[in-house]
Amino acid sequence: MATVLHLDTSARRTDNKVQDYNSISKSLAAHFTDNWLTLNDEDKVIYRDLGLNPPEFISQDWIAAVFTPDEKRSEAQKALLTLSDTLIDEVAQADIIVISSPMYNYGMPAVLKAWFDQVVRINKTFTFDLARGDFPLAPTMAGKKLILISSSGEFGFEAGGIREKMNHLGPHVETLSKYLGVETFYEIKSEYQEFADERHQKSLNDAYQAIDDLVKRLA
Ligand SMILES: Cc1cc2nc3c(=O)[nH]c(=O)nc-3n(C[C@H](O)[C@H](O)[C@H](O)COP(=O)(O)O)c2cc1C
């Protein structure tokens, strides 16, 4: 039995009266999880909608609490780390992490960055040791898969594409995913939302197909 951690991050919902207002990335990720559960009905899904329930930003006190050894933490410091502890526990349970994300200002939404800031934490998800030389950070977890399902208004963010250098979404998530113990990273994109033409429809259809194929491959 595997555990899937499904995180949605768009500010948009999927139950709007006008369908065009619905989040594309959330709809695609729901398709992934629904299909996954059809093929793996014993599996557990942990779900969070970070877009509708954003994690708190970290603060100076939060950083101080993180760098205080466990046994020396005050009750207030422990309380400040409760959300981080819970979110990290969800990552620890997960074999597969599905993150749906809109592209906002060429990168991830602030709510997703806030989640990573809560989760990528010294002595919890990574250790730091200068004996490792120029790369002192090492993840504590291993063997996870992460599937990033994204939607953008523009297009051409892939390697060799016309906006490759403007893409700070997939590459950023992939870099950070290492510190969650992710060893295999997949990205499925829907593009052209702002053009609302046949290219968008094709890109969306291709993303649904890519999800079907990936679910079959991983199931
Ligand atoms: C605040 C905001 C910023 C955006 N920035 C970009 C951007 O930098 N590049 C892009 O291609 N699309 C951008 N878009 C378009 C969204 O990526 C597109 O609408 C996407 O479908 C949103 O995801 P969702 O449908 O899951 O909500 C932006 C949209 C919003 C609302």
Automatic annotation (TrEMBL):
Binding site for FMN: S10, S23, I24, S25
Free-text remark on how the cofactor is bound: Binds 1 FMN per subunit.
Enzyme class (EC, first level): oxidoreductase
Domain Flavodoxin-like fold: 21-212
UniProt key word NAD: yes
Keywords from the named record: Flavoprotein, FMN, NAD, Oxidoreductase
InterPro entries to which the protein is assigned, alphabetical: Flavodoxin_fold (IPR003680), Flavoprotein-like_sf (IPR029039), FMN-dep_NADH:Q_OxRdtase_AzoR1 (IPR050104), NADH:quinone_OxRdtase_FMN_depd (IPR023048)
One matching Pfam family: Flavodoxin_2
EC numbers for this chain: 1.6.5.-, 1.7.1.17
Required cofactor names: FMN
Matches recorded under SUPFAM superfamilies: Flavoproteins
Presence of the UniProt keyword Flavoprotein in the record: yes
Molecular function GO labels: electron transfer activity; FMN binding; oxidoreductase activity, acting on NAD(P)H as acceptor; oxidoreductase activity, acting on NAD(P)H, quinone or similar compound as acceptor
Reaction catalysed by this enzyme: N,N-dimethyl-1,4-phenylenediamine + anthranilate + 2 NAD(+) = 2-(4-dimethylaminophenyl)diazenylbenzoate + 2 NADH + 2 H(+); 2 a quinone + NADH + H(+) = 2 a 1,4-benzosemiquinone + NAD(+)
Family recorded in the similarity comment: Belongs to the azoreductase type 1 family.
Description of how the protein assembles with itself and partners: Homodimer.
Function: Quinone reductase that provides resistance to thiol-specific stress caused by electrophilic quinones. Also exhibits azoreductase activity. Catalyzes the reductive cleavage of the azo bond in aromatic azo compounds to the corresponding amines.
Name the UniProt record assigns to this protein: FMN dependent NADH:quinone oxidoreductase
Species for this entry: Thalassomonas actiniarum
Taxonomic lineage of the native organism: Bacteria, Pseudomonadati, Pseudomonadota, Gammaproteobacteria, Alteromonadales
